[in-house]
């Protein structure tokens, strides 16, 4: 039968182990939140089609692109329009 001293020793060891597990769990949770923040920042900075220039999203212009020459012929540039808002990047066109 275990003595009172052995019981106290086991209880103290169990308490130390419990505190260590709690500290490790807290540390892993904090590290995972920090890693999530870093991952989110890197992901946000590498989103294709976005620009960090604020001036590009605040301007608006329209140009018809057509002109009349001295001989009376009309040439058209196809109409170029630009509006404020978020941009869309299209790739792979041929």
Can you describe this structure?
The chain has 94 residues and is an alpha+beta fold. It has a domain at 7-47. The chain contains 2 helices and 4 strands. It has helices at 4-45, 54-58; strands at residues 61-63, 66-68, 74-76, 80-82. The chain has a two-stranded antiparallel ribbon. Strands 2-3 form a two-stranded antiparallel ribbon. The radius of gyration is 34 Å and the shape is rod-shaped. The termini are far apart. The model is unreliable at 54-64 (pLDDT under 50).
The number of distinct β-strands equals 4
Provide the succession of SSEs: HHEEEE
Largest sheet: 2 strands, antiparallel
On the 0 to 100 scale, the average pLDDT is 76
Secondary-structure class: alpha+beta
Q: Percent helix among the residues?
A: 40-55%
Radius of gyration, in Å, reads: 34 Å
Straight-line N-to-C gap: 86 Å
Low-confidence stretches: 54-64
Strand arrangement within the widest β-sheet reads 1-4
Strand % is 5-15%
What is the count of DSSP helices, taking H or I runs of 4+ residues? 2
Query: Which word captures the global form?
Result: rod-shaped
